[in-house]
Amino acid sequence: MYRRSAAAAVLLAAALTLTACSSGGDDADAQAKPKPPASSAAPDPADTPAPSAPAPDAKPTGPVLPDAKLTPKTGSFTAEEKKYLSGRVPEKMDPAAVLQTGQDACQRVARTAKRDKDAATGAVITGEIQGAKDAITHLCPDQKPILAAAEKGFPEGPRTSPAAGNYRALTQATNCTWEAKGKDGSVLASGPETPPKAGDKITATIPAGTAEFNSSGCYAWIPA
Question: How far apart are CA 78 and CA 84, in angstroms?
């Protein structure tokens, strides 16, 4: 696969900074990032250096290269690489620099999943590995099982009208707590029933009729 030069990455970062609309990202960055499973041997995706170019899901709002001009300076792109690049490359930018950000996302997912699939799934759910959905879909389909698991889950925090069922927290931290409330605000269920010990798996049962499920310190949830 085609690799970009460092200079191209710098130019791409500058171009997307100018063309991207403000979406409150500064406030989001200011919040503490959740952590992956405490017992995971995988490196925390939040601690992994991010690509020097913008995240793979940061599409420019200004003029972009038409699909017919999505060609590298040397070599060629595959059909899936072209699909990934469609609508992502600012005019006068090297499309290989944009492709590299997606390849970087794939590499981060693969490295984490090799050691701990739960950690990789949680990193995709929470957005720790940005742009993972499109990157996996077009550039690293071998990681689709991770994406499939992530699409069934949700991050910690408030969630309205959740589907009833049993869920497992993708963390083994001892400060994970959860609560399910009905429409009238009454507590339908909460947990854990007893304080978890280090290494314990934490599960939650969301009853039918839950209007809001809220959790803290749990990183992310997937069906149990």
Answer: 10
